[in-house]
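ingest -> validate -> predict -> emit
validate: passed (alphabet ok, no gaps, 417 aa)
predict: started
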Amino acid sequence: MKAVVIAVGNELIFGQTVDTNSAWLADQLARRGLETVRHVAVGDSTEAIAEAIRHAAARADVVLVSGGLGPTADDLTRQGLAQALGVELQLNEACLAELEAWFSGHGRQMIPANRIQAMFPAGAEPLPNRYGTAPGIAASIGGAQVFVMPGVPHEMRGMYHGVIAPRLGSGDQVILHHVVHTFGTGESDISHRIGDLMADRSGPVMLGTTVQAGMVSIRITVQAAETEQARRAASEMAAALRSRLGALVVGEGDETMPSVVGRLLGRAGQTLATAESCTGGLVGQMITAVPGASDYYLGGVISYANQAKRRDLGVADELLAAAGAVSEPVARAMAEGCRERFASDWAVALTGIAGPAGGSDDKPVGLVYIALAGPHGSRVHRHVFPGDRPTVRCRSATAALNHLRLALQDAGPDGEP
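emit:
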């Protein structure tokens, strides 16, 4: 079974709002064995909506539409569906009564404009909305089922789960997605290392890559007759990727760099503190985004100015004067001072030039020193990250956690090397 997902709204076309509904719906459809063959974004135009629905219905078994069911003049999805069906809108008295009761129950006066939400294309079926005032719509065009939902995400999801999903049945196959996350090399290098696996289209598994904040994620897509068969194929491919890529693999599925680091610290029964200059607390923010971080994260120092490096981390004036704040010895002193003050097992320190100004021939924009102090001494890593200021800061923070991840993996479950 094939599906097309349509998102309606000028705010999507003009880039003012990111369309998260379509991605969510495509994932839900895949879990039922329905393959989404196209995502379409269309503006607030009756003709454009009608054309998108007709085009989708001619090419798919299921068409899911979100957005444009509100009471304002730019909410035109019901009119577009009516035009695609070649019928007029009709008032549904039962829906109007429910709408009036909803407003009355919330102590509000229903204005005349809201009546449009009780109007539906002739022959179409209203779908109940448990979370808002806009009913959905179900209709058929040719052999395709068309379902229209509100654009508000929690209303759309509630309607999909409660009303639409039970009507879809299941496809004749299972479509399963799994992701393996890597860090430490570029997308082209990853593609080169697993090129033969990506090129092999003879079996049920397909691979693709995406990049975000320096993380290269390998998407595993499996199409199989049964769920267990799909899971087994995905697991085997994930194992093959881990074997091929080794320490570049950070985690799988919902795992993130901070969650993996937290798991490794917890397994070793060890603690962490941070000292940040150019990242301004971003590493600490990433760590504490993981539930349970208080079990292993003791705290951090944002030592942005030299004064803070001296006062809070004990970095010597002579060292700052001789080497400069952005240097290997200062990064090392920051990490060692942080570890001592917090009495932590591990400390991570970062100092660098995030830009866009402040660079020189010797110390270019993007230069970041990352120091790691641990039970067996300290090490400093020099990086020059490309990109703008937010990119440099984000990649620096992720790289710092990656250095800690690798050190923890080398140490083993008991913290010993």
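The first helix runs from residue 10 to 13.
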